[in-house]
Amino acid sequence: MRDGENFALLAWAAVFLAWSLPCAKAVAQPLPPLPVKPELLGLPPAPKPAPAPSASPATSPSGATVTVVPSPAGGSAQPLPPAGAPQAVPSARQQATPSAAEPAQAPAAASPAAPAAASTQAPAGTVPAPSPPAGPRVAQPQEPPRIRLSTDTASGVEIPLLPQGTIVEADEIRGERGAAVEAVGNAILVRDNIRIQGDRLRFDELTDEASGEGNLFIQDTAKGFQVEGPRGRLYVTAKEGEIEQPVYRYDPPENVKEQSRAGHGAGEKLFFEGENRYRLLNGTWTSCAAPDPAWYVRADELKLDYDRNQAQARNMALVFHGATILAAPYAEFPLGRERKSGFLTPSVGMSTNSGFDVAVPYYFNLAPNYDATLTTRAIARRGLQLGGEYRYLTPSYQGQIRAEVLPDDREAERNRALASFQHQQSLGPEWSYGLDFNRVSDKDYFNDLSNRIELSSTAHLVQQGVLNYQNSSGWGGSLLMQQYQTIDREVSEPYRRLPEFSLWHQPVELPGGLEFKLRTLYTQFRHDDAGQRGDYGMNWVDGDRAVLNPSISLPIYRSWWHFEPSLQWHYTSYDLDQPALGGGRTSIDRSVPIASLDMGLAFERDASFFGRDWLQTLEPRIYYVKTPYRRQDDIPLFDTARFGYGFAQIFYPNRYVGDDRISDADQVTVAATTRLLESDTGWERLRLTLGQRYYFETPEVLMPDESPIVDRRTDVLGEADVHLTRRMQFKSFWQYNPSEDLTQRFNAGVRYQAGFARVLNLDYRYTRDLLEDVGIGAQWPLARGWVGVGRLSRSILEERLTEAILGLEYDGGCWVLRTVFHRYALSENDNNTAFFVQLELTGLGSLGSSPETLLRRSVPGYGKISPTATSTLFGSAGGM
């Protein structure tokens, strides 16, 4: 019986265990956390769970909810992302009270067989902690649960009604209904694009004011602005408030990066003054990204308007490496790349002719399509100069006006002035006109008042107006009024054209592949010195000239050959007030037919040498011209000069440029070009050209100062272009006189371009009995951040330096300093020396005189170090 009882007890125990194990297993599962809408966390929405019929949310009158968010170790819900991290903020529609389709999921019911502790009722307004899983496990450190208030879900907790779209999260939240919420412990408030974070936050429902203290951080994620400080407040909707001891940063969003530039700074106090507007007391601003910026703008009051991309500073100073280099009681500068009114970059320099020189321009952004600049320039040795420029641009016309005045130049002892006006305008689909007027007070104006060598070498200033016509059928014409102001004492003043009428027709295709062209001119030439002896021993005269120049050709071009015969007629008629030579004619008619034939071939072959495969070409060309002789020695030289001898001239039917001399010709030009190209890449490594002209009859038409041609063979021309490596190129031109076995001209140059701002140039120029000089130019890194740049040109004939440029550039990361010394010859015994100093502040602008144009002209391959986005400091005068 005892064994039977034991057996029965064991049987009942087995049945009980079999029945109770599933229940025990269910009880051992941890309770799921209360649901948190992923939209509030900046996460994609989770799949909607099926409604739980046994539970329904309890909604308080406020419509707000207290939610326990498990720590990462205890559940899958995530807290709000840290300050400054990218995040998606829900819209007002997403923050609305949830619908019945999204009920809160109720916790699983405990089994009656579960332990008593598992079924204990939690106090009202709290959520029981999840039960631990069955079986042994290692204890894990748990972060304290955080509390979130929002308007998306509901519970029975009495808290104030938060504005729609507002989220508050903290370790502890307490509040009084209809008054305020106070969040303590890593508190965060988020609404739309505004994020506020601090050790302690308080949000007043009635005033919409959020205040905080302790590591306060305020961020506008949409605008890219963020600031931190020990304490502050903000009216969230109005975006008005203040923060003490601010450290701020602005990083423009992607959609405005092209218009705005990043910047940061600090101050005593920062005021929020509405959407995207801020004001600092005793504040700074810089676009230098370094934690300890090399330069910054400091001001007693600094206003930053990122909608207008403009800053205003009162009692400002520009500080560079701790030293104030510029100060002003008031200044404006752009925060973006739009044009803004204000002071432009001051220009500071020094030269031999003028001494210390400083110019301060003020820019007027009058409208999107026109602007003006007023410049005050103080020249130590000469006085005060005023200058101005006005620019305009419309769909139908554009232009600019410029003027400078220097009253009572102390060095020249006279008034100095400059005037310049350019205008182009369309009068319809076929008509347009242009004006170009330039004048200076005296011939030495550019030599004395400009440091630009290209201006100091100017010989003539044009003054002209032109009316143009061009229709769709190919006819075109113009009416020109033109004269010059000559400012080079060694050059004669050109003839005035008062007026010149031209009529032409674009090439017309005729049957059989023929092509017809037409050019006509009628010009009235006038000169102030008419009747007096002029250039070339001829008299200056007033007279009229008519030109009629029709031509017909048959151009045939194929892949490996071309053939183009051409016939033209050049008729010219002169009506002169007096002869250009003693005993010469005053009424002259000249009729000259010109025939030419241009033909060439192109051969190519595969070759292999220097260890690789090549494609080599041979391209011979023959150009024949036949023009009869006509007497022209007494025709004045209104607009004619010798055509510089070169490859362009030997393939041209006339040895002169202009219509007053038509060279007689029975001549042929023979030339050949060979190219060497890499077979696999097609890159041209070598091009060599040789050419020479042969006269079957010696030309008789000459310029008055030209020696008779006695040799029927002209000089041989040679040209070479060799890419020695990917980085090194050699170019050369050679003019050789075979009769005298002499070189007439020779130019050669080598460029080594190792990379950006790494270039070396060496050149040599020679013209028999006139010129022989050698030059070297370079830009090369010298040490970390330091780059040297310069050029030296020496005349071997004169045994002196004709130009010297020596400069240093330093790249400080967010600033670049350039210093350049420039000395150049004005004449045989006169030199000018200039000194350039320029400080470029990345993102802000530059101070000083820019040597960029000089360096690019003198050092081919020059690379500008760290160019700024704008060339101005206070204001922006970008091109229209």
SSE layout and pairing:
Elements: H1 2-28, E1 65-69, E2 146-150, E3 166-170, E4 172-176, E5 180-191, E6 194-204, E7 209-220, E8 225-235, E9 240-244, E10 247-250, E11 263-266, E12 269-273, E13 277-285, E14 295-305, E15 310-320, E16 323-334, E17 342-343, E18 347-351, E19 355-367, E20 370-379, E21 383-393, E22 397-409, E23 414-426, E24 431-440, H2 445-449, H3 453-456, E25 460-470, E26 475-486, E27 496-509, E28 515-526, E29 543-553, E30 556-557, E31 561-576, E32 587-601, E33 603-609, E34 612-627, E35 641-642, H4 647-650, E36 656-657, E37 665-678, E38 684-695, E39 716-723, E40 728-737, E41 742-755, E42 758-767, E43 771-783, E44 786-795, E45 800-811, E46 815-825, E47 831-841, E48 845-848, H5 852-858
Antiparallel strand pairs: 1-2, 2-3, 3-5, 4-5, 5-6, 6-7, 7-8, 8-9, 8-10, 9-12, 10-11, 12-13, 13-14, 14-15, 15-16, 17-19, 18-19, 18-47, 19-20, 20-21, 21-22, 22-23, 23-24, 24-25, 25-26, 26-27, 27-28, 28-29, 29-31, 30-31, 31-32, 32-34, 33-34, 34-37, 35-36, 37-38, 38-39, 39-40, 40-41, 41-42, ...
